[in-house]
Design brief:
The structure is a single chain. The chain is built from 14 helices and twelve strands. It is of the alpha/beta class and about 425 residues long. The protein folds into two domains: about 10-15 and about 285-415, Aspartate Aminotransferase, domain 1 (Alpha-Beta Complex), CATH 3.90.1150; about 20-275, Aspartate Aminotransferase, domain 2 (3-Layer(aba) Sandwich). The strands form three sheets. The chain has a seven-stranded mixed beta sheet with strand order 2-8-7-6-5-3-4, sandwiched between helices. Strands 9-10-12 form a three-stranded antiparallel beta sheet, with no helix packed on it. Strand 6, helix 8 and strand 7 (about 220) form a beta-alpha-beta unit. The chain is globular. Bound molecules: pyridoxal-5'-phosphate (PLP). Pyridoxal-5'-phosphate binds near residues 113, 199, 202, 357 and 358.
């Protein structure tokens, strides 16, 4: 590839570039308005005012209370905080109505992000019980399976809104409605509330995420997946009762309403709020454009490669092909071609895509998400993830398809 040829990036589920408008909003908070938000003097006041404004903006857009938005250092941290903060509150501080029960039950899925799965595994090791709902071959859990797995000691349901590898969208609103009904009954029976957590990191850019609409108690989002900065995440925590239902995981100076200590990342928080604002302003336009490009790319690839398989749900017969899958996501299996080899060949020709989530790709492990769909290890290792961004052009899509088709042709010729 010549140095003049612009590389094509189609790995927007791994991370996105910071939007120029976001960067401009952040810039003053590095060197000019650099105060510590906890300081009493005017530098500190400037910083806390910026954080307050950011919080207010996000709260308004999500239609929730100012105090229900907590800033963290990443969505990974926010997921850990939601899960461990709740369990710790139930067990150590015995603040919840489940006090007295030592073994708690949590319901989740087998396709959560690692930042949910790992804390859950640790809780399991500590003696709690976790039900991992299985997904079907298209990547969806069954709401009735969820309902059947509820127990008296269930305290948390944690369901990923849209999966980072296959883009499948779970019925979060339906689950929220169901849990609301169940919680009303449980209250009458003197049982504890079941809290509902969703990891909305990948969904946030495209789907309705207002917590009241979804009926969730905890909702997570991340700056760098929505053209904001890396190293900043957000957590919505429903205000229930006077003392709240989650406790702090990171303890210290008591920032973020005592829930997340540590000097605030003012520039990052300002950037996150700007990025969230742009999502809400441009959601429909982004969605339509990206969906069109995604479908175009799929058509180009299918035209020359009839034997490819699509992982996750996507109905090729409908013109929109939206069926419960994020509009930016393609996860394709190329039978008998190793994704590692293909990825390198594509990268050498100027196209950056991924072999699954950024974490499993680096470790070169077969994806547990694809395994959960029923794919064998070999099949999972033949799959690549392509994710399209808001600034991707038709020209890039055409070029990307050419690079993919050429690489596949080379592999096929080599095999003959
Ligand atoms: N949840 C999902 C679904 C993700 O895709 C990611 C990032 O890949 C995360 C959580 C973690 O986000 P962060 O990079 O902000 O820690």
């Amino acid at each position: 590839m010549s140095n003049q040829t612009k590389k094509i990036y189609l790995d927007y589920a791994a991370t996105t570039p910071v939007d120029k408008e976001v960067l401009n909003a952040m810039m003053p908070y590095f060197s000019d308005k650099f105060g510590n938000a906890s300081s009493v003097h005017s530098f500190g006041q400037e910083a806390i005012a910026a954080i307050d404004q950011a919080r207010e903006k996000i709260a308004n857009l999500l239609n929730c209370d100012f105090s229900e938005i907590i800033f963290t250092g990443s969505a990974t941290e926010a997921n850990n905080m939601a899960i461990n903060g709740l369990i710790q509150n139930c067990t150590t501080y015995r603040r919840s109505s489940v006090s007295g029960i030592n073994k708690l039950h949590i319901i989740s899925t087998n396709i959560e992000h690692e930042s949910v799965l790992e804390p859950l595994k640790e809780l399991e090791r500590a003696g709690h019980e976790i039900t991992y709902l299985k997904v079907n071959k298209d990547g969806f859990i069954s709401v009735s399976d969820l309902e059947k797995s509820i127990k008296n000691n269930t305290v948390l349901v944690s369901i990923i809104y849209a999966n980072n590898e296959i883009g499948t969208i779970q019925s979060v609103k339906e689950i929220g409605k169901l849990l609301e009904k169940i919680n009303t009954k449980r209250k009458e029976q003197g049982l504890n509330r079941i809290y509902f957590h969703t990891d909305a990191v990948q969904a946030f850019q495209f789907l309705e995420c207002r917590p009241d609409w979804l009926k969730v108690d905890l909702l997570i989002f991340s700056g760098h997946k929505i053209y904001g900065p890396k190293g900043v995440g957000g957590l919505y925590v429903r205000k229930i009762g006077p003392i709240g239902f989650i406790g702090p995981i990171i303890k210290g100076g008591g920032q973020e309403f005592g829930l997340r200590s540590g000097t605030e990342n003012v520039a990052g928080i300002v950037g996150l709020a700007k990025a969230v604002g742009l999502v809400f302003k441009n959601r429909e336009t982004r969605l339509k454009k990206i969906l069109h490009l995604r479908n175009q790319l799929l058509d180009y690839i299918i035209k020359y490669n009839k034997d490819i398989k699509l992982n996750g749900s996507l109905d090729p017969s409908t013109s929109l092909r939206t069926s419960n899958r994020l509009p930016n996501n393609l996860n394709i299996r190329f039978p008998n071609i190793s994704n590692e080899t293909l990825l390198i060949a594509l990268d050498q020709n100027g196209l950056a895509v991924s072999a699954g989530s950024a974490c499993s790709a680096r470790a070169s492990k077969a994806s547990y998400v694809l395994n959960a769909l029923g794919l064998t290890e070999k099949q999972a290792k033949e799959s690549i993830r392509i994710t399209i961004g808001k600034d991707t052009t038709e020209k890039e899509i055409k070029k990307a398809a050419e690079i993919i088709n050429k690489a596949l042709l080379n592999f096929k010729n080599l095999r003959i």
